[in-house]
Automatic annotation (TrEMBL):
Protein name: Diiron oxygenase
InterPro entries: AurF/CmlI (IPR025859), Ferritin-like_SF (IPR009078), RNR-like (IPR012348)
Superkingdom of origin: Bacteria
One Pfam family cited in the UniProt record for this chain: AurF
Source organism: Marinibaculum pumilum
């Protein structure tokens, strides 16, 4: 069924276009690649997978809670409003919140698809162009997987939020190649990794876990690529050029913290905005959740050398400075391992003739 029939609210900006200026760079040096980047390119080639085959799409989800997430994660859980809701109303809210989340993942993946194809054009070195080409295919696969999850298993969609739209527009309008990396590979993908991780580790549904785990396996490679490329590049910039990037990081992080909410769902379901906003501000669960979204971004930003006073002060103000001590490489390696473990489980399930659901439930 067409996505248009699934949108819970009208897709207001169907004709969204903007000037994505870029400087196309050819390279004539084909034989001088950096070992680390070429290693990632090799990995990218070997780890290609087919979303139609690696995932068990025959699995049925629970229509009242497709992502099988605990209600404790719903921002208004346990409040007087929640207590007054009937079972049917709670199921409706659950489905809408989950549809909203998966829709933003889907739109974000399309953004990544477009950003990476732009990187192929604008980045100066052959090794980076090679790597980015594998990522273009990865992102198309992610769009496919989330689109199928949304259409077949949730049956409801939300348009892109203005917060995500603004960030994508900023990253894609800047003609400098490193700004596309910084916005996409470090900030948006860093945020996505943390959000995907929540679904992967908390969902009780084997298909939902697997979609997120497999996508994360690729994303871990993408963030690693952004880290390597920018870690080489940023020390070469002048103080003023680096300060401009730091300013952008600070603004983008506050933007993600403050503008990435699910207010469209509550608005659509006719819930009072002011009461809800007060509740969100006072909710510890929500504050912790927002802080956790930065677990992947903070150590990476430190690692690529955008670690001036302004950035450190902003992270301290947001209460996320401690994440700077996380070992970014270790986190990314763990993401790859979870996907490999799921493959092993699926293999056992196939060999013993049991479905994936059976093997995960045992
Ligand atoms: Fe992706
Ligand atoms: Fe990605």
């Amino acid at each position: 069924m067409s996505t248009a029939q699934h949108y819970a609210i009208p897709v207001a900006e169907t004709g969204w276009t903007f000037d994505g200026r870029s400087e196309v760079q050819f390279t004539w040096e084909y034989d001088e690649g950096r070992a680390a980047l070429l290693g990632l390119y090799d990995k990218g080639k070997k780890q290609q997978w087919d979303a139609a085959e690696r995932l068990d799409w025959s699995h049925e989800v629970d229509w009242e809670n497709p992502m099988a997430l605990p209600d404790q994660q719903i921002p208004i859980y346990g409040t007087p409003i929640w207590e007054k809701m009937s079972g049917k109303e709670r199921a409706e809210l659950r489905r809408h919140l989950q549809a909203h989340t998966i829709s933003q993942f889907l739109h974000g993946e399309q953004g990544a698809l477009i950003a990476t194809s732009k990187i192929v054009m604008t980045v100066p070195d052959a090794d980076s162009k090679f790597y980015a080409a594998t990522q273009v295919m990865d992102e198309a696969r992610h769009v496919e997987a989330f689109s199928r999850l949304l259409h077949d298993k949730v049956g409801l969609a939300y348009p892109i939020t203005s917060g995500l739209r603004t960030l994508l527009e900023q990253g894609l309008s800047d003609s400098r190649w490193d700004m596309t990396y910084l916005t996409m590979q470090i900030l948006i993908e860093g945020l996505a990794l943390a959000a995907f991780q929540r679904n992967r580790d908390v969902s009780g549904d084997p298909l939902v876990q697997a979609v997120h785990a497999y996508v994360m396996q690729d994303e871990a490679r993408h963030v690693a690529f952004g880290r390597l490329a920018l870690r080489d590049y940023y020390p070469q910039l002048t103080e003023a050029e680096r300060a401009e990037r730091e300013e952008f990081v600070v603004e983008a992080c506050y933007h993600m913290r403050d503008r990435f909410s699910q207010r469209e769902v509550f608005e659509n379901l006719g819930m009072d905005q002011e009461t809800l906003l007060d509740m969100f501000r006072g909710s510890e669960v929500m504050q912790q959740f927002r802080a956790r979204l930065f677990t992947r971004i903070v150590p990476t930003v430190k690692d690529i050398g955008l670690w001036g006073e302004k950035v450190r002060n902003a992270y301290a103000d947001m209460g996320v400075l401690d994440y700077a001590d996380f070992d970014a490489e270790e986190l990314l390696a763990a993401d790859a391992k979870v996907a490999e473990d799921l493959d092993a489980q699926a293999f056992v399930a196939r060999e013993t003739g049991k479905g994936l659901g059976a093997s995960a439930a045992e």
